[in-house]
Structures are given as structure tokens and as C-alpha cells.
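help with these C-alpha cells:
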Amino acid sequence: MGLRSFAAAKLPTFSGLGLRHAAPDAEPSLAEAASFDALLGRLTYLAKADLKHVREAYKFADEAHLGQMRASGEPYITHPIAVAGICAEWRLDAQAIMAALMHDAMEDCGITKTELIERFGSPTAELVDGLTKLDKLQFSTKEESQAESFRKMLLAMARDVRVILIKLADRLHNMRTMESMAAHKAQRIARETLDIYAPIAHRLGLNQIYRELQELSFKYSHPWRHAALSKAVMRARGNRRDLVARIEKEVVKAFDASPVKLQIYGREKTVYSIYTKMREKRLSFAQVSDIFGFRLVVGQLYDCYIALGVLHQLYKPQPRRFKDYIALPKPNGYQSLHTTLLSPLGTPVEFQIRTEAQHLVAEKGVAAHWMYKSDEAASGMQQLGANWLQSLIDIQDETRDANEFLEHVKIDLFPDAVYVFTPKSKIMALPKGATPVDFAYAIHSDVGDHCVAAKVNGEPVPLRMPLHSGDVVEVVTAESARPNPAWLSFVRTGRARSKIRHFLKNLEQEESRGLGEKMLAQALRAEGLGLPSLDDDDEAAAQLWQSLARWAGNRTVDELLVDVGLGRKIATIVAKKLARMLAEQGQKPDAVMLSMGRFAADDAPAHGEVTLDGSEGASVRLASCCRPIPGDEVKGYLGRGEGLVVHTAECSTGKRLFQRDPDHWIAVSWGEELSRNYEAAVGMLLRSGKGMLAQVATAVSIAEADITHIAMSEESQEGESVEMNLLIAVRDRLHLADVLRTVKRSPAVIKAWRVKPSVVGS
């Protein structure tokens, strides 16, 4: 077997340990990186015409940044040149190199996008624009500005992945040159890098940059810990020199007798990954056993499995420590065989086995597409990256809030995954802790929206149950089913979370629109007029509604009706304006309707009355302070943007709101036929003893009611009697009275009463 070097790979190495491995590409010095001539030397893969355009971009950037200096005292142009040099390592095209040279021109030098389009073309200008933060816009907080800038960059990345490659190169060079920066600023940038940029690099398979960004972030965010662990790693290298040499010799000898040709080199855990393992598993440095390992790169796919057999014959494998990422690739496209073997000294050593194409993708990720465009593995990586980028666009379509969008993206930047199967044996990768609901939304949003149950390995399971690798998942749907707000508490994917929130927001909008239409119709009836048609086919009515919406400051009629339903607009005021507009068109009030529409309900303005029948959705809420039930005298408060909140007439909170904001109150009444039960607050004084709670539950059940919540104070549990508060679902006041009578007959109950809010002034 010929042991060859693998010059294309940049790997952590065992310096001075005697292991034959590939020397990584030499990093250019800062002076070399800052030289445009040195950059040209790395762009030999570009055509002459492209090199001419790159030179023009350099001159443009040099003039734009003239007089600007970095914190280190160097001319600012050294930074764009270094960023372009990192992009050249990935053999990115001329447009990307030009954008890297000019990536700060719009942000720092006042250059406009139009100017860039005229001089360098639209594709290059779009790349630069995608890299430009939104500093020129006004935001209420720095966090909001940052979130919106991230959203802009990620969406530009979804359209063209070169945006994030240039941005990662930009961040990498900034992290490499942060010595001159103030400590507090360096820590903030390091934290941001660890939270956002390193996970994005990992998600796109850029493991080489991922590890370096993590290491540099750790160095600046925890300098003392990094320094201490670095010294410990250096000491450990010397201690294991003989063991590494022995393992290498025995592995080479074993493969001499096999037909497999391979390259072997050592790999070492980064200081950050050692620190993470120590923290998560509560280990000391001495207890971290897999600090070093070996990587075998073979020629063909089947050689990976032959090499695995050779290793397992040489050393004993550890049970449950074998992973086949070739048959089941990671979500970022990573493919390799991992096995942990017991070394001659009994310490565990991990071996990774992969082909050269898989190795290229493992280190370069989506960037491998530009390095070897004909390579199948690189093309597959490109497709995986495209799938995730498309999911960003899907999330954006349903999430207009920048902070919420960033939250969904962070959720999807998961490092681990479980692999599950559909009933037709299709493999799906989901984040660790994902549930059947995440699986349903991963298949299709319609499947998720109508999901009612799930089976895992043929057995019914709760929708919140975490899935495990190897599970066969089947989702049961129903046409009438809708997403449950409770799902938001356990779903793990950004896609599922954004789809559920989007559906609930739309549902609330629809319900608020219906309520607004109903309230406006009732308020207009008080003016003796009927509501004009909302049908688009009626042109005259459509123009009238558009004029009303413009008068109210809304873009559309639907938006106006939603605002009325949510209490942002007063139905009476809108109705009076609409009545005047109808009068201008010659419509006169109807005497019969006028007499029916007027009513006197205390001093509340004539909004019109809303009837509650149990079918109200998110736009109508029953106040938790007084918990009204059918039979109570009630009033409705149109909170600004909160929809209609129903209080009892005697509620002290409601009375205070009325005194402060009387224009936002509306008459409310109970319907004759109700479609659901309502919660009433009940207090009880019980004799302390065994089985008291069971007696109460039995009495409530006999009265055909349900207990939905129980609360008991710790202080009351020490005496002879116990005070307890319950929420009981009842049909109306008569049903509640029957429940209380039944409960009072129980031997365990001393006293039972409905809990009511205190009356103002009492």
C-alpha cells in the first residue's frame, strides 16, 4: 500500500508526533494577504477578461476606502483584499471576488447600488447589496436593526449562496485580526459569531471555517479558559507521542496486506470542542478521552467498508460507537464512517473513513461546488444547501417580524439530527428532539395543518413525543383539523413553528374581520341604514368601501374591518362616516331599522350589540379577572389591538377600564343556544383528610361538570381545614348553582362558593 499525502486538505495536525500526514495549506501572512499582487497570484484559475474586471473592482474599492484605517492602523483596503483571498481559496467566480473587494463600499463609503450596477453589472451589485447592513434605516432598538440586517443577508443568501460565502470570509478575517479591538467589542462580536455565523458555516458544510470561527470566538469570549486549555492540550501531545506513533505503525502494517490504497492523517479536537464536552458532560480535562483520532481517505466508496473491516480486525470496536454517515448523511451533506476502537493501551481512539470526494465536501461544503463543479458529491452538497436556503424563503413568506425570523433560523441551525423513515421508506433528517408534528410539516404544510394523530413503528404515540433515529413515522390527518397553538411549545423546526404561527395569525385576522363586519353592521343599523355590499362585483359599493378605508387610514377594506374587530377603530365613528357617505349618494335612513337599531345600555356608546354563542375565536376573549359565564350580565371592552374582551358588569377591573376609556365599550349578550362550556372560578374550604380531593372530584362529576385546574396554598395544608381554588367548566349559572349544591353535600366540603372580583368602592 502506498501511503500518500493529501495536499488539498487543511486539518488539525499532531505537530512533532511523527505521524505522516498532509501539511495544511500555508496561511499567508497579514502583509501577504493585504497585497493585491498576492491575491492575483491566487486567481490563476480565472480567465484574463475576468482578471481585468477584478483589477477594476480593486481600483474602485481602493479609491472608495482612501484615507480609511483599520483599528490596527493598517489601510482599510487590506481587509477587502484579505476577504477576496479567502474566497479565492474556494475558487469562487469573478463576480464573487469583485463583490468581496467592494463588500464595504456601499456601507462605509456612500457608494450607491445604482453606481455599482452601472460600473460592474447587476449580479455583482446584488451581491454587494446583500452584504450591506441596514444602518441607514431607523429602528427602535439596536437588536431590531441587527435582526433586520441578518434577515436581509439571509434572504440574499437564499437567492445566491455566494452572499454568505463572502460574508463568512469577511467574518473570518475580522476574527483573525481582532487583537487591536476593545475587549468588550471583541466579546460581543465573538458571541455573535458563535451564535449565528459558525452555525451557518456548519449548516452549509463549511466545517473548516466552522471550526476556526468557533476556536477564535472561544479565544475572545473566554480568553483565560482558552489559554489554560491550550496549554493542557500542548502538554497532552507530548504524553501521547509514543501511542500515536505505535497506532500509526500498526494501521499502516494492517493495510499493507489489503488491496485498499489510502491516505492517513491525524485529527485533533479543537480547544473549543474539548471545552464544550467538558462543560456538557461535567468532565475534567483528564477525563476527555477522544482528544485525538485518525482520518483515513480512500479511493472508492466500497473501500470505506473494506477499510472498516480491516480496522475492526486490528482493534476491538466499542459497542454503540459506530455511525454510518455515508448511508445516512448529515443534514449538511457530511458523509463518513465513524468508529471508535480500543487502542493497545485501552484508550478509545476514533477513526473516520471517507472517499476523497466526501472529504472535499466534508471540509468545504457548498464551496466544493465551485472547486470541482463536475464532482457528484459536491453537486449533492449544493442540493442540500439549496433545500435549506429554500426553507428560509418559506419561513420569510410567513414571518414579517425580523426578530421572529431570526428565531426560526436559529432553530434550524441544529448541529445534531435524527433520521426517521416515512411508511414508504424515504429517509428524512430532523433536528434532535423533533416530534411527529415537525415530521408532518417537513413532508408538506398541508399535512402539518391537518395532523390529528401519529403512529411510530405502527404504535399510536402522542404528537409531542420526541422521535429517534430509525423510527418509521406515519401521520394521520383529518380535513377538518387545524393547527393547535399548544404545538408551539414542543415543535423543534423553524419551518413547523413559522407555519403554525402563520396559520394562527391568519385565523385571528379572519375572525377579527368577521367581528368587525358584524359590529359595523350593527352600528350602522343604529343610523337606520344597512351595510353596503362587500362583494367585489358591485363596483359602486366597492368604490364606497375603498373611499371609507382611505378615510380611516387603511390600505384595504379587509384591514379596516380587522381594525374595527380588534378595537383599533371605533365602530360608531366609522359607521357615522359611512352613513354620511351613503347620504351623499342619496340613501335615506329607514324608520323601522332606525327604531330597531337604537337602544339604551347604561352610558355606553351605540356600537351595536354582539351576541356570544360559544363559537367565538381568538378575536373574542373572556376576561380572566372575572370569568363570565352565560347568565351573567356582561359588557365588552374593545382593547386596542386585543380584540373584544368580555367582563361581568360587576367586575372591578372592567369598571376601572370603563371610567378610563368609555368610548371602547360595547354591548354584549349571551345567545340562546351555546356550543361550549365556560370556566367558572370556585373556592372551597375542605376538611383536611385522606381522599378529600377524590370526594370533590366525584361530586363535580355527578353534577356533569369538569375540573380544569386546581390550586392549593401551601400554608392551608398544615391545619385541620384546607382552602382550595378550582376552575370548573359549566354550561351556565344554573349549572354552576347545581354543581355547588352537589359539592356542598360531600362530607369533605365545609363551604363552597363562586369566586367573584371585588366591586369598586366595596
User: Anything to note?
Assistant: The chain has a mean pLDDT of 78. The first strand starts at residue 262 and ends at 268. The radius of gyration is 34 Å.
